Amino acid sequence: MKDLFLILFIAGIVWLVWRAFTGKPTPPPQASEPMPKEDPQIRHLRNAMQFATTQHKALTKKQREQDAWQQAFGHAKASELDQLSGTEFEEFLAGLFRAQGYAAELTAVTGDYGADLILSKDGRRIAVQAKRHVGSVGVQAVQEALSGQAYYQCDTAWVITTGVFTTNARALAKKSGVKMIGRSDIGNLMAQHSAKIKND
């Protein structure tokens, strides 16, 4: 009997030591209490702060892009556009139209389905085929613009070039509603941008 008491006593001490080192056992799960409802004003304030932060990031990014464009192309003259590569010309046009209040998105360099640039303004989407070209721009450019309009689900299509349009290209553009923007039109947009910058 004495041995049994001693064994129980030692077992009790071992159990107490083990419990002290391992912590208390997890209590059995109780019925979950409903989470307290969030105050609508706090939720509204948090959502407003998230929206403001997102808008600030977007505007900051847009301003950085426009500043970089202004640094690279802001003081260029229409005659200098011939020195640009095709990709640089597309980037130039994107920045020029952003300065005019358009949202501008460059398409993939290869496999663009006929549109180098998608412009958006006042709910209208425009597929732009850009041709940094010294010579004549023909019917194919108009066909590519129409293809881009269909693929990107745009409302209209433009062809913008530093070159000159052939008679056939102009005829097809007129019949299909494609707007043709040539070197002098680009020069006018650049002049408007320069005047705006000076007035600001």
Structural class by helix and strand composition: alpha/beta
Determine the N-to-C terminus distance. Answer: 102 Å
Largest sheet: 5 strands, mixed
Helices and strands, in N-to-C order? HHHEEEEHEEHEH
Structural features, described:
With 200 residues, this protein is α/β, with parallel strands linked by helices. The chain has a domain at 63-195: Trna Endonuclease, Chain: A, domain 1 (3-Layer(aba) Sandwich), CATH 3.40.1350.10. It is 55% helix and 15% strand. It starts with a helix and ends with a helix.
What can be said about this structure in brief?
With 200 residues, the chain is α/β, with parallel strands linked by helices. The chain has helices at 2-22, 40-73, 86-99, 139-151, 167-176, 183-199; strands at residues 103-106, 117-121, 124-131, 136-137, 156-161, 164-165, 179-181.
How do the strands and helices of this protein lay out in sequence?
Blueprint lengths: L1 H21 L17 H34 L12 H14 L3 E4 L10 E5 L2 E8 L4 E2 L1 H13 L4 E6 L2 E2 L1 H10 L2 E3 L1 H17 L1
Parallel strand pairs: 3-5, 4-6, 5-7
Antiparallel strand pairs: 1-2, 2-3
Helix pairs in contact: 2-3, 4-5
Task: List the main descriptive attributes of the protein structure presented here.
single chain, 200 residues, alpha/beta, Trna Endonuclease, Chain: A, domain 1, five-stranded mixed β-sheet, two-stranded parallel ribbon, 7 strands
